[in-house]
Structure formats: C-alpha cells, structure tokens
Amino acid sequence: MRRWIALAAFAAACAHKTPDQQLVHSVEPAISWVATLQFAGERWLANSVPSSFVRASAGAAEKDLEKAAGTIDQSQARKELRDALRDQLAESHDAAEQLKSAIDRNDRRSATVSVRRFAAASAVLQRLQKREERQ
Asked: How far apart are CA 90 and CA 92, in angstroms?
C-alpha cells in the first residue's frame, strides 16, 4: 500500500508542471538538435563525418525546429520564454540552412559561422532549460 501512495504522489508531482516547464519539455527534441548540429558541423570541419550525414541531420533537424515553432505558438507559457525559445530556434533553423548550403559549396568559412551560431543558440537554450528545471 505504501508503494502505491508513494507512486501516486510521485505521479502527481510530475503531472503538475507549469506551462513554462511543459513548453521547455515539449521542445527538448529541437534543443537537442541544435547541439547535435553544432557537433556534426564541427566533425565535418574536422573531416570526421561525410557531407551526406551532416546534410541529412540538418534536414531532419529543420523539421523538428519547425514543429517546435508551432508548439511555441500554441503554448500558454510566459511571453518572455516563448520569445526566447522562438528566437533561438529560428536562428538555429537559419544556421541549418546555411550549413547545408556551405556543405554543398564546400565552404568551410560559412560552415564555421553556422557552427558558431549553433553554439551560441545552444548555450542560451540550455540556460533556459536549466532555469525551468529548477523552478
């Protein structure tokens, strides 16, 4: 019986998330893609992964980034949080397009700029994610 009470209490605690926490949780796949694209771009610049891998990763990421944008638009989270997430994910979407184009042209300078954009966006997104986890 004690196990059931503890399990019910745990489930209730998990189920009661603020709109901000729910939003951050729902866009976590997109946040992960930003870090993944940063890593993939870095590996491409180091000649460690094929162009086709990075191009395919960027294409898949763009779909999740677009889906996350729709989720943000429908969220009841604070406007500040929605705007911050939307801005960073839009920046990452643009950087993904830039990275694909750079790879097609074998333009390492442009790819480096994309990787830096992913790194900056990822840092902001991780801060937002950690802040919501603490609340």
From this structure: 5
